[in-house]
Write a structure and sequence with these properties.
This protein has about 110 residues and is α/β, with parallel strands linked by helices. It has 2 helices and 8 strands; from the N terminus they run E-H-E-E-E-E-H-E-E-E. The chain starts with a strand and ends with a strand.
Length: about 110
């Protein structure tokens, strides 16, 4: 079984460009929705009159190097430097996409 998470967006092109800059590829274009794919993770954005900004879009990497590379790319959008989270045994940082959606970058340790 596969799945896709969809979000409403008011800034379709900016949001798609942001996630593509992170390495996501367009999996499917629909009339007002774009579905992206990053590894086995599929997520879509549909052009609407309001945006869904609740929840967290989380990208999981194999190791700290992947997280650190994304931090270097997104330091100006990050909410802080990558750090180890003892509660969940993960190394992570958070950033915001162009609409203010929380985006997490992590690796399990």
């Amino acid at each position: 079984m596969d799945g896709i998470v969809f979000f409403r967006t008011e800034r379709h092109d900016d949001v798609i460009d942001f996630y593509r800059s992170l390495g996501a590829d367009v999996w499917l274009e629909q009339p007002d929705c774009t579905i992206l794919e990053a590894g086995a993770f599929r997520f879509g954005f549909c052009d609407r009159d309001r945006a869904d900004t609740d929840g967290i879009v989380t990208f999981v990497f194999d190791d700290r190097d992947g997280v650190d590379e994304r931090y270097e790319q997104l330091a100006d959008r990050a909410n802080g430097e990558p750090a180890f989270n003892e509660t969940y045994d993960i190394y992570q940082f958070f950033a915001s996409d162009p609409e203010g959606r929380t985006v997490e970058f992590q690796t399990f340790e």
